[in-house]
C-alpha cells in the first residue's frame, strides 16, 4: 500500500512538471511569435498575385502563338515573359511547363535561375553603396589601401592587382586572365591550384584572384569576368558588414519592391516551391558534383556551383520582379528611381569605347542584359518607345549563349504582331501581407 502511494505521488509530480514545461514553451513560442509580428512579415510577391489568365486577350493571341513556336523550335520546355511600358506592367505570362515530368504548367509565379542577369542586380547594389558614401567606384579593391585589405588577401602575386578599382570590376576591365578557364565554372582546377577542398567559398575565389597574374594592366583591356563579379559580391559583404544575400534582399530588393528573388540552391531538394525544374540538351552528360563528392550529376543539378556564383550568376527570379528592378533604374519619370540619374548614366554609357556596368550592352536605343548556363537562358531588353521586357527559359540549347540572341530576335519580332497592348498596370496591384 505504501508503495502504491509512493508511485502515485511520483506520477503526480511528473505530471505537474510536464504541465509547467508546456506552459513555459507556449509562452516562449508566443513571445517569439510576437517578435515576428513586431518585425512584420514580407508582402506577398507581385508574381504570386498574377495569373496567366489575367494577360489573356484577343489582341495578344498572335504573340502567344509566336512565342510557343519559338519555344518548340529550340526545345524550350518552359518559359516566362513580362512586358512593361513607361513603368507600367502590361503583360505577364508563363508558357510551356515548369515541370515536364508531372506536366505542371509555367505560371507567372514561377522563378528561374537568371545566370548573368545577376550581374545587373549586383551592379545596382554597388552603385547604391557609392551613392550612400560607403564606397567609391574609384576605390582600390586590393592591397593595404584597398577595400579588401584583410590579411588573407594581402599576399598578392601581381602588383598591378593593387591598381584594380571597383569600376574596373564593374566594367570587366580589371585585366584578369583565365589560366584555369572561367574560374566560376572550373572550380575543381581552382581548388587544386589553391590546394583547398571543394566546395570553394567566396573568400577562396577572392583569394584566387590575388594569386594569378593579370593579362593586362587594369583599365586597358576588356575581358568578361565572372570572377570580377564574385569579388564585387565580397566587397558588398565587407562594406555592408552583412552576408551578401541578406544585404541584397533587405537593402536593395525589398526597397525596390522585390520579395521573391533569392540565391539559388544547387540541388532540386533545395529548390523553392515555385521554382522551375531545369532541362539540358539531350546530348548533355553527367559531370562530377560541385562539392567534390564522387557523385556524377547534370550540370544544372549540382554539377555547377550556381549558388557559389553569388552576384556573378547566382540569383533566381521571375520576369515580373526583374522588370521591377528595371523600372527603378531607367530614368522614366512615371515612378521614382532607386538610383540617381548620375548612377544610371554611369551604368549605361553610349560611347562605344566605354563598357557598361551591370548591363551587357547599352546604346542610345537599346539596353541588353543576357544570362545563360546549363538549364536556363534569360534576357532583359530596354528599347525605344518606353518598352522593356524579360524572357527566361528553364532549358538550355545546343548553341549555348546564342539562345539569348535568338530570344532577342524572335520575341522582338513577335511583339510587332500586337497592334495595341492592354491598358493596364499590374504594378499597381497592392502586395498583401
Descriptors:
single chain; 433 residues; alpha+beta; three-stranded antiparallel sheet; 12 helices; 35% helix; disordered N terminus
Description:
The chain is α+β, with helices and mostly antiparallel strands. It has twelve helices and twelve strands. It has helices at 2-39, 46-49, 61-74, 118-131, 166-170, 187-194, 202-211, 226-240, 244-256, 319-327, 341-347, 402-415; strands at residues 78-85, 88-99, 104-105, 112-113, 262-263, 287-288, 296-297, 315-317, 361-362, 366-373, 376-383, 387-393. It has a seven-stranded antiparallel beta sheet, with helices on both faces. Strands 4-8-5 form a three-stranded antiparallel beta sheet. The chain has a two-stranded antiparallel ribbon with strand order 6-7. A hairpin with a 4-residue loop joins strand 2 and strand 3. The longest helix is centred in the first third of the chain and has 38 residues, at 2-39.
List strands and helices in order, with pairings.
Layout: H1 2-39, H2 46-49, H3 61-74, E1 78-85, E2 88-99, E3 104-105, E4 112-113, H4 118-131, H5 166-170, H6 187-194, H7 202-211, H8 226-240, H9 244-256, E5 262-263, E6 287-288, E7 296-297, E8 315-317, H10 319-327, H11 341-347, E9 361-362, E10 366-373, E11 376-383, E12 387-393, H12 402-415
Antiparallel strand pairs: 1-2, 1-12, 2-3, 4-8, 5-8, 6-7, 9-10, 10-11, 11-12
Helix pairs in contact: 3-12, 4-8, 7-8
- Helical content band: 25-40%
- The low-pLDDT segments are 1-39
Specify the structural class: alpha+beta
| Count of alpha and pi helical runs | 12
The biggest beta sheet reads: 7 strands, antiparallel
From N to C, what is the helix and strand string? HHHEEEEHHHHHHEEEEHHEEEEH
N-to-C span: 62 Å
Shape: globular
> How much of the sequence is in beta strands?
5-15%
Rg, rounded, reads 25 Å
Strand order of the largest sheet: 3-2-1-12-11-10-9
- Overall pLDDT: 90
DSSP summary, beta strand count: 12
